[in-house]
Write the structure tokens for this entry.
Amino acid sequence: MLRLNNVSVNFGGVKALTDVTFDVPAHKITALIGPNGAGKTTLFNSITGFIPHFTGEIHFHNVKLNGKLPHEIFHIGISRTFQNLNLINELTLRENMFLGVIGKEKPPIFKSFFRLNKGYWKNVEQRIDDMLYLTGIKKWENSKPGSVPYGVLKNLEMARALISNPKILLLDEPAAGLNSKEKENLAELIGMLNTKGHTILMVEHDMSFVSTLSDYVVCLNFGKLIARGTFDEIRNSPDVIKAYLGDEDA
Ligand SMILES: Nc1ncnc2c1ncn2[C@@H]1O[C@H](COP(=O)(O)OP(=O)(O)OP(=O)(O)O)[C@@H](O)[C@H]1O
Ligand SMILES: [Mg+2]
């Protein structure tokens, strides 16, 4: 489904990714792990058009993603969450969600002046409602980001990524900062999305979360792929153990 072939990224002298090659199989949950600075977010940024200067090739269902812009990739069916939540504190959660939709979909604003696409806006409001219910944050919709628990904001990030009904969902550290109950709810949501047919690629440091949810795991270290397989296969890999040595998440 999603295929990366010799993907490399340089930032000045820093080799953030070196010849990374792997497949993300359809309808499965794949976890991308690795110590801090391993290149996980850089990989997400390459797939989603935020780093246009990567070398190698990325294909999604035989469509080459090289050179495509973030909103084009979004329309192909690839959606993502961000490691650092990007919310406007003066707006309510619902308004933040709305902004996320129009930023990505780029609706014909001109037509809106003449009320020619009422149907579109009605549909957006409906989809926002559906996603707020799905992620369990409907009751917070009129609150502002500063006044709700962090877990609610993480769910808002999920809701924003899901509103386009993506074929593949890239989650950058979805469990980071969550308490155990919130992690449990998130695991249930991710499992349910997968059952509904969404393919998932998630960056995650929480190994119990990874082991519970993932069908496959890919491990990066210093920008290189050092192991791939099921969680049980890679957990005993000497390279993975070495990469995590001294890391409390190991
Ligand atoms: N925009 C950038 N400019 C320069 N260097 C960058 C940039 N983005 C990332 N890097 C560097 O690339 C390397 C990989 O960073 P990246 O953020 O992809 O790691 P990560 O695996 O997501 O780490 P973490 O687990 O801490 O989120 C690091 O050395 C980082 O400093
Ligand atoms: Mg990262």
